[in-house]
């Protein structure tokens, strides 16, 4: 059925979201999760961990030429990070909208960084910037068994598919 296919396609898109050590230490875990959950996205994986510096360098490998790379990796590995995978229609692009611009000074009010952060080096949250990055980041942070596929009862109300 076309409607089932549409629902399946909607379910297939996944993105990697991480609450960085500043977000965890500032007590913003529930606030951040709530914004994704209330929007209608579905949580399919979550854990808290302290990444090693080597792991942080792998995560941010595409930024290794940037002057802030070393400090950024030191910071990401400085404390607990909440790593998550969220699923839903358009979740990669819209997740970035929920997060806001990289520099919180330029993030719109209403976005996570706009409402909750001030400095670019302490912008509390990470989100994959495209489908390839999302795939790579999910594979770096989670094993396939940690990703939980399920149907949420809310989906038919969120997508309007019966
Ligand atoms: P993001 O995808 O919006 O997180 O931004 P990027 O992928 O470009 O950068 C990764 C992270 O590096 C950002 O979230 C910031 O925490 C940090 N960052 C980016 N640009 C700067 C900068 O100019 N200075 C500093 N100190 N950190 C930066
Ligand atoms: Mg990025």
From TrEMBL:
Transmembrane segments: none annotated. The active site is at 126 (pros-phosphohistidine intermediate). It comes from the Eukaryota. Residues 12-149 form the Nucleoside diphosphate kinase-like domain. Coiled coil: none annotated. ATP binds at residues 20, 68, 96, 102, 113, 123. One of its GO terms (cellular component) is chloroplast thylakoid lumen. Keywords: ATP-binding, Kinase, Magnesium, Metal-binding, Nucleotide metabolism, Nucleotide-binding, Transferase. One of its GO terms (molecular function) is nucleoside diphosphate kinase activity. It is an enzyme of class 2 (transferase). Its EC number is 2.7.4.6. One of its GO terms (biological process) is CTP biosynthetic process. Its cofactor is Mg(2+). It catalyses: a ribonucleoside 5'-diphosphate + ATP = a ribonucleoside 5'-triphosphate + ADP; a 2'-deoxyribonucleoside 5'-diphosphate + ATP = a 2'-deoxyribonucleoside 5'-triphosphate + ADP. It is found in: Plastid, Chloroplast thylakoid lumen. Belongs to the NDK family. Major role in the synthesis of nucleoside triphosphates other than ATP. The ATP gamma phosphate is transferred to the NDP beta phosphate via a ping-pong mechanism, using a phosphorylated active-site intermediate. Shows the highest specificity towards GDP. Homohexamer. This is nucleoside-diphosphate kinase. It comes from Zingiber officinale. The chain holds residues 155 to 316 of 316 of the full protein.
């Amino acid at each position: 059925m076309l409607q089932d296919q549409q629902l399946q396609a909607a379910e297939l898109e996944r993105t990697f979201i991480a609450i960085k050590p500043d977000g965890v230490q500032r007590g913003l875990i529930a606030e951040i999760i709530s914004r994704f959950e209330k929007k209608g996205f579905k949580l399919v994986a979550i854990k808290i961990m302290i990444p090693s510096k080597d792991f942080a360098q792998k995560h941010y490998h595409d930024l290794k030429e940037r002057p802030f790379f070393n400090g950024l990796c030191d910071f990401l590995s400085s404390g607990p990070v909440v790593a998550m995978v969220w699923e839903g229609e358009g979740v990669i692009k819209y997740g970035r909208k929920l997060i806001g611009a990289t520099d919180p000074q330029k993030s719109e009010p209403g976005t996570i960084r706009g409402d909750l952060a001030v400095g670019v080096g302490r912008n509390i949250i990470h989100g994959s910037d495209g489908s390839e990055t999302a795939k790579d980041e999910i594979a770096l942070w989670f094993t396939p068994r940690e990703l939980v596929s399920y149907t949420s009862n809310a989906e038919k109300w969120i997508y309007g598919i019966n």
